[in-house]
Amino acid sequence: MDYTKFRLKPDQEIREVFERVNQIFILSCGKCYKKFEEEDGEEYARLLDIVGEDHRKIAGHAMIDFLCNDFLSTRRISDLDLSHFDSVGVVSCGLGVQFLAKLLEGTPVYALADSVPHSVNYPPEVAYHGISLEEENCAACGQCYLNLTGGICPITNCAKGLLNGPCGGATDGKCEVDSSVDCAWVRIHERLRKRGEQFASEYVQLRDYSAPSWKLRSDLSLQNQALRGEGFYGGFHPLDKKEATADKQIEDFAEPQIAVIFLSQHVGRRSQPSVEVGDKVRVGQKIGEADGFVSSAIHSSISGKVIAIEARTYPAAPRKELAIVVENDGKSELDPLIQPREDFEGLPKETLLEIVKESGIVGLGGAMFPTNVKFSPPKAVDTLIVNGCECEPYLNADNRIMIEHPEEILTGIRIVQNILGVEKVFVGVEDNKPEAMAALKRLSDRSPSVELVSLKTKYPQGAERALIRAILDREVPPPPKGLPFDVGVMVSNVSTLLAIYQAVVKGVPLFQRVITVSGEGLTRSGNYMVKIGTPLKDIMQYCFDKNVDRILEEYDVRMGGPVMGIPQASLDSSVIKGTTGLTVLRKFPVQASEERDCIRCGRCVEVCPMQLYPLFYGFYGKKGDLGKAMEYRVEECVECGCCEYICASKIALLSFIRQEKAYARSANKG
Amino acid sequence: MLAVQIKAEQEIAPLISSKKLFIFECLGCRDVHYPVEEAERFIAGLKEGVVGKASLDYLCHREFTHEYIKAYASEIEKAQVILVFSCGVGAQVVSSLLEDKIVYTCCDTLYLNGFQGLTVQEFDCDQCGECYLNYTGGLCPIARCSKHLLNGPCGGSQDGKCEVESDIPCVWQQIVDRLAKLGQLDTLERLGTAKNWNVSPVS
Fold it and tell me: For site-directed labelling of A663, which of A136, A251, A434, A611 has its Cα 20 to 30 A away?
């Protein structure tokens, strides 16, 4: 099925347009709703053929994918210099032409293509398909008749659009308008008979051709358009499912019998173990030294004996990683070095940074970038943004921290203000967390430099760039080179601020964190303060309250939320510093597959907050042409997962993107 | 790629009274417009009649829906009526895959401007197959004039507003304004050939 929306106008009409213009710029649309193939541009070649000698009047040509996406296309077109052409010719459906006619108000815009009605039969009016390329059409009449007609729409399937029975002109079940087409009413009758139903014409309401009203339609359309651009372009509104754990207080999770503490819990080089097998360790004792500038210290989360230093199943990537395995002695002895600091307010910046470094603090929002490195930016920053969005569905760890520890967060903010020498602080919280807002509000009222900002709930509001755009309307240059400090901003997560507070004020290094365990089938979902290194199996055992040996057959367990979370192939790994939660979801009967083809529906383009065209990553990834993705700026992708989440063909876009980004990195190095 | 609203309960109730129900709910275009809470209330009101429910993305995708139907075969078997919450395309796909079952939809489908292209926006295209935009300053009278007039305004508009509903701008007013601005008012003289309404199918 191919629903391509347009074809070139008749030759004569095109020639007429060319007679009227002197210098014309041609814009063509990359088409939608057709199987993604690589033969773009055939219309343009034919156009050149048709105009013959007049091709000299063509001053330029550009192909823009999804031309009707007004937001993205406006940007693409502003990169083209259209000023010295007297007119623009458009090869697209009527939407592209109308959009351009408005955008380029002073320039004549000519349609060089006719849109094509895509209904399969001969419907009396326009019919619309779903997101996939199927035969069924819908007239979107606003008064569905399918319940009376056995699920076969007479409006789109009957040549005459009759609503109250057949016209009587059909012969042998074929339509009198076209004998190759089945009579819709014969089909309806047969389907109903199969189901033991009968068409009851007395129920048929007169069709109200004024409904749905223009106002309703246009309000809905504008509303939808506004949602897409709210705060930042793209994103989507997932069912957040936060209610299951939003009201559950943070509980201390039992210390594990065996803690598996990975030496790689951060971006950068793996830490070097500073203990040996057989050594006794205490809670909070440093057991791994940072190895180089971008690395981090590791601390024991329990007291006991080191029983192994070996490679174990790692939760953040499908590989094994070196871990220090500690057996609990049940004594919970604290490292004597852990001492609270009375005088932290007066400490110089360098000392504070050293404490942050020695305490092994990394970005706890999931990124795990060493905080002391991040807080030593090469450029001055003027603003700190505290990230309290937690836009992933199901997760409430940050939410509960804001509700239960607002004082500590505020002190953490003061410490970071001192480190960065920053005056202005914004705390961004999504508006689905009113309790957290209220808790922070009570405190921020006392601190004039801290401004609380309520943000619309939209995924991925918590992504740094989206946050900076929504709060400050500053555009961070594209990754991988551009970072928030390029626009004078530092972003820090509320969990990280709590860890900084703990480290600086209480002297406690990072060996525990709050995680949310939520999802389907759990008997004890909740928010737990968990020791780093706690085996996932211990947590699942407790939260399911039953044997979980075979749980992965029925459920998907993800480290993190359902969108960006990392699927776990086994429960043998353990909690690391970047574990924001564990989301447990019943397996879908339909698994994501790489085999289904992209149909260019463009949903991924609609949701990509980085304003990329993710469909190309899937297309070229599948072909193994990894380098091609660089032409489509794959390096700028922040892996938020919106495209994969929305994909109607369930293409595993993220895994292609990760491969392509790795390829791009090595290509740039080489 | 469509938006829906939930039908009135009175319309559905007589169809399903004391029947065992299986529910298909499409969440694929939820971000476009699907009243989740209203649907939940509706479903909650059905209570004991429901023997199973599948929520999935893109019910219009025949292949996926087929897989789901297989996965929920035993529950579907028990149900006397399949209720579908989706646009008309999804409802028709389910109905055609379950030919022997009674399938009812609980939604009316609404159309959003521009969505036939890709993006919800202020413009719309009726895909008439014979584009008039070259004569009308890039504003479509077919999609935007209440009376779909092709040869000029009806004469009923006041202050640039349509006589059908005063919220609606008269597109013919806008067309004339735009053409005047472009110095192209003469193109209006080229209108007047009869439009070929004979839509042709796409192969």
Answer: A611
Q: Which residues of B touch A113 (CB under 8 A)?
A: 131
Beta partners for residue A258, in sequence order: A327
Q: Return d(Cα A160, Cα A148) in angstroms, integer.
A: 18
Of B113, B77, B109, nearest to B91 by C-alpha is B109
User: Which of A91, A98, A239, A607 is the best substitution to test chain B (most B C-beta atoms within 10 A)?
Assistant: A98
3-state helix, strand, coil in chain B (%, to 5): 40, 15, 45
Residues of A in contact with B112 (CB under 8 A): 217, 220-221, 224
Q: Which helix (H) or strand (E) holds B158?
A: none
**Least CB–CB distance from A195: residue in B102, B105, B122:** B102
Partner residue facing A138 (CB), from B88, B127, B146: B88
Chain A neighbours among B 38-67 (CB < 8 Å)?
A: 54, 56-64, 67
- Give the model confidence (pLDDT) of A324-351 as tens digits: 999 999 999 999 999 999 888 889 999 9
Phi, psi (deg, nearest 5) at residue A453: -120, 125
Q: Which of B93, B130, B143 minimises the CB distance to A114?
A: B130
- The answer to whether residues B112 and B120 touch, using CB atoms and an 8 Å cutoff, is yes
Provide the CA A486 distance to its chain's centre, in angstroms. Answer: 23
Average pLDDT of chain A to the nearest whole number: 90
Nearest CA in chain A to B81: A195
Chain B nearest-CA residue for A177:
B198
Question: Residue A159 contacts by C-beta under 8 Å, 6 or more apart in sequence?
Answer: A121, A122, A123, A124, A175, A176, A177, A178, A181, A184
Q: What's the DSSP call for residue B133?
A: G
Q: What pLDDT does A105 receive?
A: 80
B184 touches chain A (CB under 8 A): yes
Closest-CA residue in chain B for A133?
Answer: B61
Task: Dump pLDDT digits (tens) for A75-117.
Answer: 899 888 877 788 999 998 888 888 888 888 878 889 998 877 6
To the nearest whole Å, the CA of B30 is away from the closest chain A CA by 9
- Whether A332 contacts chain B with CB within 8 A: no
pLDDT of residue A403 exceeding 70: yes
Structure tokens given for A568: 């776990």
Q: What would the two tokens of residue A570 be?
A: 């086994």
In contact, A518 and A245? CB cutoff 8 Å? yes
Contacts A150 to B, Cβ<8 Å: 95, 103
Q: Which residues contact A318 (CB under 8 A, 6 or more apart)?
A: A569
The count of other CB atoms within 10 Å of the CB of residue A570 is: 11
Q: Does residue A380 sit in helix, strand or coil?
A: coil
Which helix H or strand E contains A296, and what residues bound it?
none
Report ipTM (2 d.p.): 0.80
CA distance linking residue A353 with residue A348, whole number of Å: 9
Q: What is the pLDDT of residue B201?
A: 37
The shortest C-alpha distance from A35 to chain B (Å) reads: 14
Chain B contacts of A9, Cβ < 8 Å?
A: 131
pTM for the full predicted model: 0.85
Whole-angstrom distance, CA of residue A420 vs CA of residue A484: 14
The pairing of beta strand A512-519 with beta strand A526-531: antiparallel
CB distance A407 to A446 below 8 Å: no
The answer to whether residues A629 and A664 touch, using CB atoms and an 8 Å cutoff, is yes
Name the strand (E) or helix (H) holding A661.
Answer: helix A653-669
Q: Do B125 and A93 touch (CB under 8 A)?
A: yes
pLDDT at B177 over 80: yes
Number of other CB atoms surrounding residue A349 within 10 Å: 13
How big is the CA angle at A564 (ends A558 and A567), to the nearest 5 degrees? 25
| Cβ proximity of A270 and A291 under 8 Å | yes
Q: Yes or no: say if A383 and A488 are a contact pair by the CB < 8 Å rule.
A: yes
Residue type, A95: L
